[in-house]
Amino acid sequence: MPPRASDRLAIAVDVGTTTLAASLVDRDSGERLAFAGRANPQGKFGADVIARLQAACASEENLRELGRTVNAAIEELADEMLDRAGMNPDRLGTIALAGNPAMEHFLLGLPVRSLAHLPFRPLFSEGQRTRTARLGWKRDLDAFIFPLPGGFVGGDLAAFLHGCGNLITHNSTLNIQNCLYLDLGTNGEIALSTGDRLWATSAAAGPAFEGGNLSCGMPALPGAIDRVRLAEGKISLSTIGNTQPIGICGSGVLEAVSGMLRAGILDRSGRIRLPEEIDSNLGNRVAEIDGRRSFVLYRDASRTIHLSQEDIRQVQLAKAAVRAGMEVLFRHAGITAREVGKVVLTGSFGAVLSPEWLKNVGIFSGNMVDICVFTREGALAGVEKALRELDGLAAVDELARRIRVIPLSGTPAFERHFLEQMDFPFP
What we know:
Helix content is 33%, strand content 24%. Helix 1 (49-58) packs across helix 2, helix 8 packs across helix 12 (412-420) and helix 10 packs across helix 11. It has a domain at 5-159: Nucleotidyltransferase, domain 5 (2-Layer Sandwich). The chain has 12 helices and 18 strands.
């Protein structure tokens, strides 16, 4: 049923492992009235999904706290957006949430042992309809939790693909057969459409692409360095909100690593070269910080923002996992990377991510640079689209049923590709 005039407002949420992103939507006009985001408060239980699953399995108290903290944070985001938009809370009728399987289980307070151990199966696959009061909210609203296609392929990928629906149709019209969809986050999700078939998998990339678990990393929030340009022996930076730098988010990290490779600061193995090995003034930025060789991006009287050797390794692990996952899907579909006709990219990086950076670090092959389309907040946009449409939530369920999930854990092909992809391709 369409929403009543009295409750035509809805909240859309992308429940990311590292970052929560939410918007307030008018379901009649389709207009986004407000946006809010913050770091996922579950971070105290660990930076990645595996650490949080282990914590939840260790005690019922941890499981309850994982659900309580994320629901409380989302309700605070809802209140913040209603206040910012000057809207009466009584007009809010629905909330729709999409996340990876672990995040959705935590939201619902469900046991997670089936996700933490082989064969890594969620307790539900269809979208879940409930009430926010059952989730611990003060306000009682209709709530829809996005479907889980299987394994660690979650509702966030289903939302992303739903948001790309018009693009998929357009590609079919143009006879573009092989389309790759990448959501680069802590739980890097990958989908491949080949004609009428839809394949998907999830690569445990870790939080590096979202600025997590790095020496000076942070989510894409005000103060985060989101652009890093290295040229002619100099560095220029920009931050979200044009404020004083306080950390670095995913887009800044990837552009920095790409630039460090091009400038000869990193070798192919990912080693930060010694100052005397670098043929520019940028060598002066290599320093020992906390006992680790590091590259200094910014320094003032109160802080030093840098990338350490361990940070570079985290980026290598993340990019190797994603590229190996891509290769496994190509193999199942019987195609090669060169046969991909279009790439759609999303993620909570910060600035728009240049395909050239992804080629330099080894996620993209050369042909993907010119066929890549970036869509900002892809999962969140898909949740909004489902809320705006008359039968959008049912359509998401139908889409999720079409997805063939390919597991990566323990797969020899994935492990082989992962090792092959650890080095950088440039210089």
